């Protein structure tokens, strides 16, 4: 990682699918290890780091509800899937001697800590990576909303969303080569144009608490470090004046 980090405390939001690699389901050990290596490199530069990881590689609450399952039950199953992913990433980070704590919004003392805001902040101040699992602990809320909520609660300077593409587009660039890419957007533009960045609750939370959202490609090696130093390709979502970005 070359250059100094622009942000000193960040939350990285990853989808569960980001851990699949080329698989159709579950966890790809090589992909998990690569992501852990990138996080470890950034952490070594003194960045206080927390993560929220989705569970779509194992189970999606919305998909379960669509097949006739009770939505609340399906969402709770999805939350448990995020804990599995969080433990996998914790293991990969600790193999690299990065001290890591998993905190779950659904208490399960045998495998991880309960989510306690002040404890999460203290862990980061002590140089530990904190993985915030089980979403908000409530059904009907996505892990995007959980990421925005936790970023607000623990005082993050930015919310980074790692995706399969290098920013925000007005259409799916995987299927439409003419899709327009944005370098910068306001929260209002994302909401009014219904752009696929994060769900509306997450965008609104970030907007109200002045937390910029940086969308970048997590599949591109080294992209995380480049984004944190203000380099590389990413889309930043912030207020019109841009005063929310770090100096």
Structure overview:
With 247 residues, the protein is α/β, with parallel strands linked by helices. It has a single domain (9-238), classed as Acetylglutamate kinase-like (Carbamate kinase), CATH 3.40.1160. 35% of the residues lie in helices and 19% in strands. The chain contains 8 helices and 11 strands. The chain has helices at residues 29-43, 61-66, 71-94, 117-125, 143-153, 187-193, 200-208, 223-228; strands spanning 9-14, 48-53, 100-104, 113-114, 129-133, 158-163, 168-169, 181-182, 184-186, 213-217, 235-238. A 9-stranded mixed sheet has the order 4-3-5-2-1-6-10-11-9, with helices on both faces. It has a two-stranded antiparallel sheet with strand order 7-8. α1 (29-43) links the parallel β1 (9-14) and β2. The chain starts with 8 loop residues before the first strand and ends in a 9-residue tail after the last strand. The mean pLDDT is 92.
Features:
247 residues, nine-stranded mixed β-sheet, alpha/beta, Carbamate kinase, globular, 11 strands, 35% helix, two-stranded antiparallel sheet
Strand count:
11
Radius of gyration: 17 Å
The CATH top-level class label: Alpha Beta
Number of helices: 8
Detail the topology: elements first, then pairings:
Blueprint lengths: L8 E6 L14 H15 L4 E6 L7 H6 L4 H24 L5 E5 L8 E2 L2 H9 L3 E5 L9 H11 L4 E6 L4 E2 L11 E2 L1 E3 H7 L6 H9 L4 E5 L5 H6 L6 E4 L9
Parallel strand pairs: 1-2, 1-6, 2-5, 3-4, 3-5, 6-10, 9-11
Antiparallel strand pairs: 7-8, 10-11
């Amino acid at each position: 990682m070359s250059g100094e980090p622009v942000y000193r405390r960040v939350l990285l939001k990853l989808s569960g699918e980001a851990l699949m690699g080329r698989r159709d389901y579950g966890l790809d050990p090589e992909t998990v290890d690569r992501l852990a290596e990138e996080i470890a490199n950034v952490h070594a530069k003194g960045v206080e780091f927390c993560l929220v990881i989705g569970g779509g590689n194992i189970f999606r609450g919305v998909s379960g509800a669509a097949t006739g399952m009770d939505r609340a039950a399906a969402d709770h199953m999805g939350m448990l899937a995020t804990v599995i992913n969080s433990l996998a990433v914790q293991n990969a980070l600790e193999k690299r001697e990065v001290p890591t704590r998993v905190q779950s919004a659904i208490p399960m003392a045998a495998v991880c800590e309960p989510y306690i805001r002040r404890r999460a902040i203290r862990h980061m101040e002590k140089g530990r990576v904190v993985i915030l699992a089980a979403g908000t602990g409530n059904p009907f809320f996505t892990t995007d909303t959980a990421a925005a909520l936790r970023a607000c609660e623990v005082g993050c300077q930015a919310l980074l969303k790692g995706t399969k593409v290098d920013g925000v587009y007005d259409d799916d660039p995987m299927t439409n080569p003419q899709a327009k890419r944005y370098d910068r957007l306001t929260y209002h533009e994302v909401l009014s144009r219904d752009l696929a960045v994060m769900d509306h609750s997450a965008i609104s939370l970030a907007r109200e608490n002045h937390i910029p959202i940086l969308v970048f490609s997590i599949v591109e090696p080294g992209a995380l470090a480049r984004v944190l130093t203000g380099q590389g390709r990413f889309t930043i979502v912030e207020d019109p004046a841009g005063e929310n970005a770090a100096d």
